[in-house]
Amino acid sequence: MGRHHFHPVDERYTPEDIAYLDRAAALKEIRAIKLRSYAALGPLRGVRLLEVGCGTGDDAARLARAVGPEGNVVALDSNAAMLAEARARFGQVANLRFELGAAAALPFTAGAFDAVRADRVVHLVADPGAALAEMARVLRPGGRLAISEPDWRSLVVEGGDADTTRAILDGLASGPRPSTADFVALVQAAGLTIDAVLPDTLVITDLESAYELFRLGYLALAQVQRLGIDAAAAKRWLASLETAAAEGRFRSALTGVTISATRDGGR
Ligand SMILES: C[S@@+](CC[C@H](N)C(=O)[O-])C[C@H]1O[C@@H](n2cnc3c(N)ncnc32)[C@H](O)[C@@H]1O
To answer: What is the pTM of this model?
Structure first.
């Protein structure tokens, strides 16, 4: 389904992207990362929690159950279509409220939350430092942050044309997406104390899933545009991945990190 073509994505979500988030959330590896990030927030009962970049709202709804009726969850997303989907799914949950807004300009007062969570969001925003500063600002002293983010510089793609693979992965390494070390530095620069940095590696040997999860077609297109890699070479690269997959030589992996941190000044 279109995977032989470049797959440009942008921040305007389509029903296909919503289905993608659902498929990703159903993977046992992703479910484990989500559970790890919920746990990193500490005891949840009675907590006022902010979910930044809530997507379809599934995590926010789960967290609304965890905080119980004496707590509440605000789920924010900058994308109106995504928020409409989340509201359609979970608009009736009493202690869950959805808000349109941007991570780098959170529409909340300082110290309004006991816990803030973001799952594959900070790596997307234009100014990740501003987003983390905002998340720190809305946390009360002693409040907990948990972010789970991919480190795109860790991407491994094996089996395709080696020269183009190297050019594309080098392009990612010099690109704007933060590395694990950058995420740690940004959390610290926001004035938070790191509690834990926990990596998770997703190994994908099925090309269809790698296209979807690692956006290989999009990566090729982005490098064509950004680094001026020859478009024909990028297409040949995608074809070489198909051949590798057919011959059982395709492998890929991406490591992400869950960082938990505390805002200083609590009891
Ligand atoms: C990869 S999806 C992850 C969604 C959800 N957290 C999950 O785990 O399924 C990224 C989400 O972040 C939202 N997003 C992207 N940039 C944002 C920003 N600057 N502020 C708030 N939300 C943003 C997108 O609209 C999208 O819903």
So the answer is: 0.91
Q: CB-based burial of residue 97 (10 Å sphere; 0-12 exposed, 13-18 middle, 19+ buried)? A: middle
> Alpha-carbon distance 167 to 192, whole Å?
36
pLDDT at 233 over 60: yes
Q: Are 54 and 75 in contact (CB under 8 A)?
A: yes
Residue 9, domain member (yes or no): no
When divided into structural domains, the chain yields a total of 1
Query: Cα(182) to centroid of ligand 1, in Å?
Result: 19
Q: Token pair 């690109």 is at which residue?
A: 175
Q: Is there a domain that residue 112 lies in?
A: yes
Cβ of 79 below 6 Å from ligand 1: yes
CATH number of the domain enclosing 221 = 3.40.50.150
Which residue puts its alpha carbon closest to atom 8 of ligand 1?
A: 119
Hey, whose CA ends up nearest to atom 11 of ligand 1?
53
Highest mean pLDDT among 79-83, 240-244, 263-267: 240-244
Q: Tokens in use for 63?
A: 């967290």
Phi, then psi, of 260 in degrees rounded to 5: -115, 145
44: pLDDT strictly greater than 50: yes
Q: Is the residue at 7 inside a domain?
A: no
Nearest to 85 by CA among 34, 17, 18, 31: 18
**Residue at 151 is within a domain:** yes
161 close to ligand 1 (CB < 6 Angstrom):
no
